[in-house]
Each structure stands twice: as C-alpha cells, then as structure tokens.
User: Which sequence fits this backbone?
C-alpha cells in the first residue's frame, strides 16, 4: 500500500510525488494527454469526500507551472488514501513531482457551510431538546443540508430561534480549534460523535469555543465570523421522525435575502406603493375592497334575478290539468336558481317549475321543482330533470320536490323547456 498523507487541514497547495496511476483498473506508469485516470500522490491537499462534505476541486501543475490536469473528484481508496479522479491535459508520469492546487474559492465556501452545520447541530439541541441528533448531512459549496431526528415539523418560531442562535454565534467571532487526540480522551472531553461515522485510534475533535464540540474529519473556518451570515431556506420531512433543514451562508445567504427583497420590491410596484413596509397593509386594504365589491355584486345579482323571476313567474301555462312555469333566466349559477325555486315554493305559484340559465363559461344550469300536492300525485322533479337535461347535453337528478342538472349546450335550453310540456302531456 502506497502511503498518502492529507495535508489540506493546513495548506491548500502542496508538492506531491505521483505514486500510483490507475486506468481501466490497471496500474500503469503514465497518464496520456487528454485522458482520465485515478491517481495517488505521497501527499495531497485535496479533501476526499467524507461525512457529507463534498470533495475538493482544483488543478495539478508540473514543475514548469503549466496545468497538466484538472481534479474532478477525490474519494478514499479502500486503503484510505485520497484517490483523485483527474482529467489530464498533458502527459503525467509516475515518480514525478507535481504541484497540487485546490480551488481556494470552492474550498472556502465548503468550509463555511461545514462549520455552519456544527453550529446548527448545537442550536437544534438548544431549541428542540437534547433528544435531537444528526441523521446525515450534505455540505456543498452553495448550500448545506442537515438531517436530524425530531417528531413532527419544526415550527416557524423555532426555526427563527435556531437561525438567530447560529447567526449570534457567527457574529460572536468564536475561534474554531482542532484537537487531535485518542478516542478515549476525546470522549472524556465530551465530544459528540456524529451518527454513523467510524473513528480510528486518533480522532480529531473540532471545538467552536465552548459552544460546540464534535468528532469531525472535515474542514472548518478558523473563526466563526468567516461564515458571515446564515439563512435557513427550508425545513421538511424525509422519513419517519427525520427532518431536514437546508440552509445557505455567506454570499449565498445574502443573495437569497436579496432575491426576496426584489420580490417585495416588485410587489410594492404592482401595488403602486413606494414604501415596502406598507405592502401588508395595502394587501389587507385590497382584500377588504374585494370583499365589499363581492357583497355589492351579490346584492345586485339577487335583485336582477328577482326582477326576471317576477316576469317569468307571471307566465303560468296549464298543461294536462297541471300548471307549469318554465323559463330561461340570466343569473350567475345554480345557487341563484335554488333561491328562485325557494321563492316559487313559498308563493305556491304553480305545480311544476323549470328554470334554466346559461353560465358565463358556456355551460347550462337547470333546476326543476314540483309542488307538494303534485308530488303526492306521483310527479317527481328527478324524473322531469332526467327527461329534459339531455336537450342541453347533460344529466342530473335529485329529490321528488327538487332536482338539478348541468349541461354544456346552451343552444338547447328552449328545447329543454319545451320538453317539460311534453313530459306533462304524457
Ligand atoms: Zn466538521
């Protein structure tokens, strides 16, 4: 086994001797130009993916300072060495020394998000209780994801408390210290072991002042103030008793807030107000206006419907010994037809009633009603609606005294009204 030392805790650029090259599962001596390979150096500053923290990216240069390869991924080989997946631009040869250079901007974003997970882990326990423990995490340069045990969702109020605590710790400028020690001493110190992680004889304990202490092999900021800002963007469930928080830090947190700010700005513009803080009051005002207008519209519709009904209710035909009122009205829909049928019933205007209306969306509403006397004689509103609804391309049903139907052929309304007369003639 080729030994390989990880030096990325202290330096992000280091010289390494190329020890092993694997192409298509074969150990070889050179990486040809423009090809992919897996390579191991005697030492490397590249972090290999572990504990949810993504691998570093970066470049490899030769001694002349030319970029010879891009590092696309780094994973732990079975024997623990950091195995780099590279895209070689120029030929590379075993036992040559190369300059390994981590993408510093990428690395710094990751370490900010990673350190924020330590603060979040403790803040969750502070707010939700000591039963809460980590159930997994993902630390990317642009965001972090943190899974933890908790029954039920976290309230908006608690999320705010958690976020406030993390930000307070960031702004307290707390030094982050790493202690490498044996496992027993670390446990005596009270360090929290991350769920599912395995530890060797020596362990790294990462302390954020007195606030948090965890076993952790990841990379961290030296002072919490480097994180800048922390913002939770979502909280959701990912399984029985497991919740997930997604959050952003630093520039991404500012961008997130700025996007929200722009949305508010747009809303204020749409509402034609200058002050953003006036937005909620303006929306409340508009909602009250809408409510008032709806009430006024309803009152007018009712009045209009009654006027129309007045005319139709005068037109009583006598067919086969029964009185019939049948007509088309211009109302908003079924609920108004029912109101008219109530009026008809109260005033006992005829034995049989048929009302139809064409709705604004091109459909038809039909209602039929039979007086209680006629019901006793065997006339049924449900039978009548079944007889006439097909004329408007619909169907329906109901009780013996009241039935309703929908249809989609407004041009069939007159035919349907005529069919009611035929039904009485049978
Ligand atoms: Zn860590």
Assistant:
């Amino acid at each position: 086994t080729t030994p390989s030392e990880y030096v990325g805790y202290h330096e992000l650029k280091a010289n390494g001797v190329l020890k092993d090259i694997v192409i298509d599962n074969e150990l070889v001596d050179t990486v040809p130009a423009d090809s992919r390979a897996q390579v191991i150096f005697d030492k490397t500053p590249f972090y290999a993916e572990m504990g949810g923290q993504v691998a570093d990216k970066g470049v490899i240069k030769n001694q002349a300072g030319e970029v010879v390869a891009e590092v696309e991924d780094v994973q732990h080989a079975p024997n623990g060495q950091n195995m780099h997946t590279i895209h070689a631009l120029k030929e590379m040869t075993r036992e040559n020394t190369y300059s390994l250079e981590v993408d510093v901007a990428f690395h710094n974003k990751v370490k900010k998000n990673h350190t924020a997970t330590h603060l979040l882990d403790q803040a969750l326990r502070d707010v939700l209780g000591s039963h809460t423990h980590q159930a997994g995490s993902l630390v990317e340069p642009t965001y972090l994801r943190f899974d933890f045990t908790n029954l039920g969702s976290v309230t908006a109020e608690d999320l705010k408390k958690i976020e406030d605590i993390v930000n307070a710790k960031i702004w307290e400028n707390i030094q982050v210290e790493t202690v490498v020690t044996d496992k027993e001493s670390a446990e005596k110190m009270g360090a929290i072991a991350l769920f599912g992680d395995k530890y060797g004889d020596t362990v790294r304990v990462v302390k954020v002042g007195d606030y948090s202490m965890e076993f952790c092999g990841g990379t961290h900021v030296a002072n919490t103030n480097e994180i800048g800002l922390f913002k939770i963007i979502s909280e959701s469930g990912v399984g029985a008793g497991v919740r997930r928080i997604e959050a952003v830090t630093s520039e991404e947190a500012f961008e997130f807030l700025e996007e929200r700010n722009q949305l508010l700005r747009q809303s204020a513009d749409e509402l034609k107000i200058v002050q953003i803080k006036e937005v909620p009051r303006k929306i409340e005002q508009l909602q009250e206006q809408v409510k008032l207008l709806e009430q006024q519209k309803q009152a007018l519709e009712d009045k209009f419907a009654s006027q129309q009904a007045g005319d139709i209710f005068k037109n009583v035909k006598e067919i086969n010994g029964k009185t019939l009122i049948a007509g088309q009205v211009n109302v908003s829909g079924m609920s108004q037809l029912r109101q008219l049928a109530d009026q008809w019933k109260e005033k006992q205007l005829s034995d049989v009633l048929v009302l139809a209306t064409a709705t604004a969306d091109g459909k038809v509403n039909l209602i039929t009603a039979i007086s209680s006397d006629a019901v006793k004689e065997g006339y049924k509103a449900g039978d009548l609606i079944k007889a006439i609804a097909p004329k408007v391309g619909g169907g329906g049903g109901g009780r013996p005294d009241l039935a309703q139907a929908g249809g989609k052929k407004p041009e069939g309304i007159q035919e349907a009204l005529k069919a009611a007369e035929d039904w009485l003639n049978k």
User: Anything to note?
Assistant: Residues 279-314 form the longest helix (36 residues). Residues 114, 118, 206, 216, 218, 220 surround zinc ion (CB under 6 Å). The chain has three domains: 5-102, 108-259, 297-425. The chain has a mean pLDDT of 94.
